[in-house]
Amino acid sequence: MNKPILPFYMTYPLPIYAQEEDTMMRDLEYLEQMYPSEAKKYQKRIAGVLDKIDYDGSLIYDEYPCKWQLYRLVENILAILRKEAQRNRENIPEEKWVWIEDMVQILLCHEIYRRRHKHHKTTKPVEVFGKYI
Hints:
- Strand 1 (127-128) and strand 2 (131-132) form a beta hairpin.
- Helix 2 (37-52) packs across helix 4 and helix 3 (67-87) packs across helix 4.
- It is built from four helices and two strands; from the N terminus they run ααααββ.
- It has helices at 14-32, 37-52, 67-87, 94-122, and strands spanning 127-128, 131-132.
- The longest helix is centred in the C-terminal third of the chain and has 29 residues, at 94-122.
- The mean pLDDT is 84.
């Protein structure tokens, strides 16, 4: 009972990994639907801002994004949210803005993580020894 010897590239479970990542992304999207209404509102605004800077070479795809740039991005999103609150005549106390800033920072990091994984899946496959990976 001799087992055939497989080339190294056939021993990696790439299709299984892709299925696991698809399952993980579906779970993540399902759980995002359960966010509280305020978090959903901030998530939509964050997604809109990131849509504008979502391109190859963007800071969101850097291996180690600059903390200062992410902080500036949070500040820009907060400025947008403050203008929207003024336009809608919402009276939000300053203490709550501290909480909102933390929430925006968490949601921003989460959205960047999600986009990086989605971007990783849509990049062009690489050919290695006649096989695409």
